[in-house]
Amino acid sequence: MTAECILSEQQIADALAYGKQNAEQTDYEFLTPWSISQGYNQGQGRVTYFSPFLRVAQIGRNEAKRHHDVNLSIVKKILQPCADTVDFLIMAYGDDPTFGRRIKVYLQCDNRTVQPSYVRFPPYAEFNRDYYNVVSGEAKFPRAEIAKNSTVTVVVEIHPQEEKGAVEEKGHEHEKEHEHVVVSGTPPLDKPVINKYTFDLSKYR
């Protein structure tokens, strides 16, 4: 699939114009129309549908802030990988600096569970000015498994630390069985915290 199949020339132009018009917004403000936020308790956070339009708009914004012209050939190269995946940016709050290693992400769509083709979270959280441990990462899902303009739910699980003496699980394995949803703001975790973010993809550019 080519970049033109993802966004038309007009859509690319519209996205670049949107980015330029909103260049002075903060990162948080710029992503808000594509984002769902749940709060600041552990396990909560914010998920952004990083649509092809938003990706191009961000290029337009960045170049406008630098007072540079946009190179359309570079834009199309950046768009090319988007042909195969549906992408989300994930920010989560946790109870300790290494909780990002215990995050599991998957997607629910049409009564199916879709596992990510790529997940990345940093091994150590940032400690922000509000005294929260926060990690920012991304997850990519196979576009072939997600119908166009469908409604999808991004599920973010944060699992508790294993007891001392246990071998720490590595990577981002995805379990088939999941415990019930827990809403908690009191560390430490003693069971998984599971939060869900539902996006109607037809409503996002």
Condensed summary:
This protein has 205 residues and is α+β, with helices and mostly antiparallel strands. It has helices at residues 3-6, 9-21, 27-31, 52-66, 72-79, and strands at 35-37, 45-49, 85-94, 103-109, 112-114, 118-120, 126-127, 133-142, 151-158, 193-200. It has one domain (3-203).
List the keywords.
four-stranded antiparallel β-sheet; 5 helices; six-stranded antiparallel β-sheet; alpha+beta; 22% helix; 205 residues; globular
Q: Would you write up a description of this structure?
A:
It is built from five helices and ten strands; from the N terminus they run αααββααββββββββ. 22% of the residues lie in helices and 29% in strands. The model is unreliable at 165-186 (pLDDT under 50). The longest helix has 15 residues, at 52-66. By secondary structure, it is α+β, with helices and mostly antiparallel strands.
Radius of gyration equals 18 Å
**Continuous helix count:** 5
One letter per element, helices H and strands E, the order comes to HHHEEHHEEEEEEEE
Low-confidence stretches: 165-186
